[in-house]
Amino acid sequence: MARFNPNLFVFIALMVASMHFISSTAQTTHVVGDALGWTIPPGGAAAYTTWASQQTFTVGDILVFNFTNGQHDVAEVTEAAYAPCTSTNPISINTTSPTSLTLTTPGAHYYICTFTSHCQIGQKLTINVSASSTATPPSTTPMIPASPPPTGTPTPPSMTPTPPMTPTEPCPPTSSPSSSPTSPPTGSTTPPPPGSGATSLTVMVPATFVAIGLAFLNL
């Protein structure tokens, strides 16, 4: 039976935790109004404006609208319909709570309640969604322009003509070497270097003693 490796268990646990962290950071859920929910705000539209200013909306995030069924709804409308609270021809409308809307496109998004006068009283929300942060940014490596080809025809190196050689007078004949015999060198001859036997003996004697000493130590 294979032995259990605790390091393998720790590695798998770290991998699972990192995958969960990546997935959680890639998508954020925003509960509209937090504890207030989606209702007629007591302070007017400023309540939702303040809430939106404290959030960061990114493509892939989710908006959650909590409201009382039958008393409110949530409709996404165009910018032109948002200011006058026009509820005709909305982009989308949901009447069941909780309503979860995934932000799929960047830019401004507008939401209102279509119940009579609810939008005019302040039940309206506008947010600005930024592009996904996981998109790969374009490369910023500067392009190095190629060197332009040389222009014009290269000028060949100038050739200076060599002046003609001036004839010179013939050299006088050299005298023949002396035919007299060369006297042998005098002086004592250099003695031959000492033989290599002494050097070999000097090296071998200490090595022999070392070998003998090691042999006694091993006994």
UniProtKB/TrEMBL annotation:
Superkingdom field: Eukaryota
SUPFAM superfamilies found in the cross-reference section: Cupredoxins (SSF49503)
UniProt keyword annotation of Disulfide bond present: yes
Record field: transmembrane: 198-217
Domain Phytocyanin, chain residue ranges per copy: 28-131
Compositionally biased region (Pro residues): 145-175
GO molecular function annotation: electron transfer activity
InterPro entries reported for this sequence: Cupredoxin, Phytocyanin-like, Phytocyanin_dom
Signal peptide residues on this chain, from the entry's feature table: 1-26
Listed Low complexity bias regions: 131-144, 176-189
Alphabetically ordered keywords of this record: Disulfide bond, Glycoprotein, Membrane, Signal, Transmembrane, Transmembrane helix
Gene3D superfamilies, alphabetized: Cupredoxins - blue copper proteins (2.60.40.420)
UniProt keyword annotation of Nucleus present: no
Any one annotated GO CC term: plasma membrane
Region (Disordered) location: 131-199
PANTHER family: BLUE COPPER PROTEIN (PTHR33021), OS08G0482700 PROTEIN (PTHR33021:SF496)
The protein, known as: Cupredoxin
